[in-house]
Amino acid sequence: MADTKQNAAPMEMEEEKLNDQMKVRREKMQQFIDAGVYPFGQKFDWDHHTQEIKDQAETLEKEETFVRIAGRLMAIRRHGKTAFCVLRDITGEIQLYFRKDVLGEESYDLFKLLDIGDIVGVEGPVFTTHTGETTVRVEKWTLLSKSLRPLPEKFHGLTDKETRYRQRYLDLIVHPEVQDTFIKRSKIVKGIRKYLDDRGFLEVETPMLHNIAGGAAARPFKTHHNALDMDIYLRIAPELHLKRLLVGGLERVYEMNRCFRNEGIDTRHNPEFTTVELYQAYGDLEDVIFITEDLVSKLAQMLYGTMKITYIDKEIDLTPPWDRMTMIEAVKKFTGEDFSNVTTIEEARAIADKLHVEYTEHSGIGKIINGCFEDYVEENLIQPTIITGHPLEISPLTKQDRDNPLLTYRFEGFIYGRELANGFSELNDPIDQRERFVQQMKERALGDDEAHQMDEDYCRALEYGLPPTGGLGIGIDRLVMFLTNSASIRDVLLFPLSRPEQK
């Protein structure tokens, strides 16, 4: 019992301390109000960012230019009738210099009510201190928003990962590098759009609510539409809607938007994620492999001026062309087992048993090959690698390989052991597609809740004619992870899904 009391005491003291700080800040807020100052200000017409001032400091100082900047106070050092502060905006930090004889007694007294975390606007000339630091001499300041909660301590900071994800606003304040990650994410998204727009692709929007969950093998989120009295699904992929547009005569389309899959959460998966899917009529597998290699390498070049980047502990060379292997070749390389001449399920199971790869009684040769690939190969694909020759059994929307009916014209792109891209020569034979949907329905009946449902309207659309087509999907979140050296998908999502906060 004694130990319990000793452990509890610091927590109680910390809570009390925090409450005291918040109380003091509210008292200061009231002092501003009593002085006729609204503590949650109005519009402020700034004309510079901090980095601009630093870049132009010599000219601004020489010409005695007054600058107007706004941001959050991150440090305050008071010395009687003078004070130095650090102001941070989206571009960085700059030093501010406050003097009582410049501001006047009334303004300086109010200045003393400011806290770290307050948002202010300031106006004044630029000068360089004797230590060489670019500084703004404040001649006028305005309170724009009083911070009623103290920021985390500088040296202890915001260390709990879950708190950082839940309170991303605080994470962004305390960790400027996090801001940089999401600024880079925005640049990547813009870069993708420009790349595709420049090549004649039309950006479109297709439904998020589907009455049939299709376009990928995944478990959907299910809900109910009251007015129509029908069950609907959050989309797991936009593929089938996008290909309908090619049937209708659009030749190159893409969509960059959210998809939803009712699956686990880990460093590579979030139930809500962003993809770009594109379809090129009169194209094939080689076209979308080229786009993948070209697009990803150009994005790295745009961000860093090089196609060689560091991810975690490895230098990754994104320069095209990437390494290429078939799935069967890759399994042989990393296990020594060769599926190229396997023709019976017994032979496939014997290899799986030898490698301790799990399968079900309903798994065919193709699923066993894929199981061996996932267990033994994926984690070894560190440098960018194109894997082709996927089994028909796991590729229900892909054109069959004419030379090997077991396989399809499909590829996946891997970097650092993680799938980044998935593309096909799209199946456009309506009879074959219907048969594959029927097979998928049999697998659903046997308990595979990720198997495709029958989509009669999509089959009908194919009967009108889908041109030979190359299709591609790239996970934006994983792409951003690689290009920003982020270890977890949750680091590149502004608000990743979390359990409700426990009170």
UniProtKB/TrEMBL annotation:
Source organism superkingdom: Bacteria
Keywords assigned: Aminoacyl-tRNA synthetase, ATP-binding, Cytoplasm, Ligase, Magnesium, Metal-binding, Nucleotide-binding, Protein biosynthesis
Subunit structure: Homodimer.
Organism of origin: Megasphaera hominis
Matches recorded under SUPFAM superfamilies: Class II aaRS and biotin synthetases, Nucleic acid-binding proteins
Name the record gives this protein: Lysine--tRNA ligase
Places the protein is found: Cytoplasm
Any one Pfam family match given in the protein's UniProt record, by short name: tRNA-synt_2
Cofactor(s) of this protein: Mg(2+)
Cofactor binding note from Swiss-Prot or TrEMBL: Binds 3 Mg(2+) ions per subunit.
